[in-house]
Amino acid sequence: MDTKLEPIVKALQEQFGASYEEFRGEVHMFLSSGQIIEALTLLRDKYEFELLSAMTASDYYPQNTPRFHVIYQLSSLAKNITLQLRVPVNGDQPKVPTATRVYETANWREREIFDMFGIEFEGHPDPRRILMPEGTEGHPLRKDFPLGYEEPQFTFNFEEIDLRKPYAKE
Amino acid sequence: MGVEQKLGNMGIVTAKLEDVVNWSRTNAMWPMLFGLACCAIEMMAAQASHYDMSRFGMELMRASPRQSDLMIVAGRLSRKMAPVLRRLYDQMPEPKWVIAMGDCASCGGVFNNYALVQGVDEIVPVDVFVAGCPPRPEALIHGVITLYEKVKGEKFVTPT
Lengths: 170, 160
Description:
Chain A is an alpha/beta fold.
């Protein structure tokens, strides 16, 4: 771990009881959804993480419960370090408070996470889908979302599929 | 051999009206200027000086659907874009034709997933499918020539 990160990790462990994981030099801190806004504010104001460089989510269904992780990747341009925060979220009624009041850039990222994973962000100023068209059912990046949309047409099933394929009218 | 030899002394040519109208349609077909993905690059190449699609009377790509009669769907069509494509098609004046250029437009290509329309024939009626990923400019020009052959055989009244 980067020596500049050590006091920050220690502070998060003491203040929030956050557990810690490291993989090839990347540090992940696990926080609960109740703590995340406070932690982000602290990191931005005290430890100079002025940039939320990425925000995403991951679905670990069916291996892990809780199945979702919401991941915040923070960068400090002043110190040249990055830090990942992870918030595990349960599968039924997944909810996380919005980070838009701490980092303005979280707005569209949270809309994307909502669109792809169906995780709601409480207090989000504009909680619409961002990628899929309005009226889409389901959230495509969930692991239990059905794979594929259409069966490929081969010679043996060409006519069977041709019958039920929707064709445009003039 | 020019038209003078055919005219004879009377200055008259006889032909079927269908043939003349269809011939005039094929030799001044204006495609709509829009591309959806990488196939559009090949479409531009087909337009440019090296392949020069204007040899076949297609010297103008029209930026407005109201002035065009051929839609070349060049690229993959996402579900979000599909209503827009249909609207462009509806804005084109009759008669109008559609070429689905490339595998993605024809059948979804390698993208068999939630985001893309599996063949634009779900959205607009397609006359000619051009295979390839992306098709070379020759293939697109061949598709256009194939469409000309189809248009030349069109009837004014559908026989019942």
